[in-house]
Amino acid sequence: MPPARSRLGVLLLGALLTLVFYLLLPAAQHGQQGRGAANATAGTRMLEGGTPVFYREVSAGPRASGTAGPGRPDVLFLHGQAFTSKTWEALGTLALLAGEGYRAVAIDLPGYGNSPPAETVATVQGRVAFLDRVLQELGIWRPVLVSPSMSGRFALPFLLARGDRLSGFVPIAPVRTKDYAAEQYRQVQAPTLILYGDRDTSLGPQALQNLRHLPRHRVAVVPDAGHACYMDKPEHFHRALLSFLHQLR
After folding, report:
1. What is the pLDDT of residues 177-206, one digit of tens each?
2. How do strand 144-148 and strand 192-197 relate by DSSP bridges?
3. DSSP letters spanning the chain
4. Which has the least CB within 10 A, 68, 152, 224, 227?
5. Residues with a known catalytic role
6. pTM of the model
7. Which backbone phi and psi does 220 adopt, to 5 degrees?
C-alpha cells in the first residue's frame, strides 16, 4: 500500500475511534450518576393519638432504606410560616445532605402542606409531645433539628425540654426566642449553629441576642439575604450547614 494511502487509513481509523469514544462517554457518565442518584420518598405517618404527619425524605443510593452513614446524625427539617417540607426538597437541601451520607427528613407541621391541623399542638407541652412522636414514628435518633422562623414554636420548647435528644440545633431566625430566660438557654448542651441573613433586621438580631446564651453556639451570617436566608442564598446556606454537620462527626 502506498505511504499516502496508509497514512489516510490511520487517520480515518483514529477519527472513527474518537467518534465511538464520544458516543459512549455520555452513557458511561449517566451510569455513574445513576448509581449515586438520590431517591425521594414521601408519605404520611400516623402518630400515637391519631395525628397524621406528612414527611419527605431523600436517601442516596445504598442508603435508600433511610440509614445514615456511620457517624453522621440524622437531620430533621421544620419550616417557616410561608413554607412546607417541599421547600427543602425544591432547594436541593435534602438531596445534598443525602449525597453527603446524612439521613435528611422534612415534615409538614400540623396545618401546613399535607399535614392536617391538630388540636394537640395548641399548647407548648403538646408541641413538645408532637416532636417526640415524630422522632419515634420516623425512627429518627438524636437528630440535628433545623428550625426556621415560625417553627421556633415547636423547636425551642423541645430544645429546652429534650435537648439531650438532639445531636445539634440550627435555628434560622426562629420566633419566640424572647419567651425564655438566659438561664434556661444556659442549661442546653446541644451544639448550635445560629443562622440568619444580614438583611433580616427584626427576628435575626433578636434571635441572636437571646440564643447567644446557649453555651455551645456558633454564628453564621448569610450575606445579602433576608429573613428566609436559605431561599435568598441557598449555596451559602448549604455551605454553612454542611460545615456545622461535619464538625459534629
Report:
1. 999 999 999 999 999 999 999 999 999 999
2. unpaired
3. --HHHHHHHHHHHHHHHHHHHHHHHHHHHHHHHHHH-EEEEEEEEEPTTS-EEEEEEEEEGGGTTSPPPTT---EEE---TT--HHHHHHTTHHHHHHHTT--EEEEEPTTSTTSPP-GGGSSHHHHHHHHHHHHHHHT--SPEEEEEGGGHHHHHHHHHHHGGG-SEEEEES-TTGGGS-HHHHHT--S-EEEEEETT--SHHHHHHHHHTTSTTEEEEEETT--SSHHHH-HHHHHHHHHHHHHHH-
4. 224
5. 149, 200, 227
6. 0.82
7. -130, 120
pLDDT in tens, 20-45: 333 333 333 333 333 334 567 888 88
Task: Report d(CA 87, CA 104) in Å as an integer.
Answer: 13
| Chain CA centroid to CA 219, Å | 18
Distance CA 105, CA 137 (A): 12
Using alpha carbons, list the distances in angstroms from residue 30 to 25, 26, 41, 139, 161: 9, 6, 22, 33, 47
pLDDT digits (tens, 9 = 90+) for 203-233: 999 999 999 999 999 999 999 999 999 999 9
Q: Which residue has the cell 449515586?
A: 36
